[in-house]
Amino acid sequence: MDGASDPYAAYREAFFDRSYDDYAATVAPKWLTANDAAGDFVREHFAMPGADAAVDKALRLDSTVMLVDDPVKRVDNMTMAWGLEARTPFLDYRLVELSARVPAQFKLPDGGKQVLKEAARRVIPSEVIDRKKGYFPVPGLKHLQGDTLNWVRELLLDPSQDRGLFNPAMLDRLLTDPQGQLTPLRGSKLWQLAALNLWLSEQGI
Q1: Boundaries of each Asparagine synthetase domain copy (predicted)?
Q2: I need a labelling partner for 19 at 20 to 30 A (CA). Which of 33, 35, 63, 126 fits?
Q3: Which among 64, 83, 110 is the end of a domain?
Q4: Tens digit of pLDDT for each residue in 11-39?
């Protein structure tokens, strides 16, 4: 995104997992919105003052919206569920304020986080700093097969779980070729529908 002439378009290409057209083809007509709400939200957020570079616009959105409502919340919920309290030192407000003042061109080199990596090399071995990034692995996010695929199929085809939310033609296409229907970020479209349906069931909706 560094130096992008259209920050919104660059962000959308890098981070949006589903397009509005894809959404429109997936849901039943009665659930179709008249506008691209997700795109409008990002566009309005990027238009706010205080972040000029495309990278800084993206980082502000991530730190004030995405980070708060996704990974931080997940870690907090899971640790509290087991009577633990997690600490996230990289979210110390002084470190956050300092990193926000670092010019965008120093944040991207060396695979990203250049300033942080170079500072850390004084006290942390390079093999730790340069190792491959880990994540919260959920196989179903990318590969549906075996018992997991059968469970997803039952969940989405169970008449008692049919809320009239999805377009039947799209659902049939996803179930016919579960391995081939991936999002631009290589996520399983079928898994996303199943996860939404399961969440709605657990919430009594």
Answers
A1: 33-201
A2: 63
A3: 64
A4: 998 889 888 999 999 999 999 888 899 99
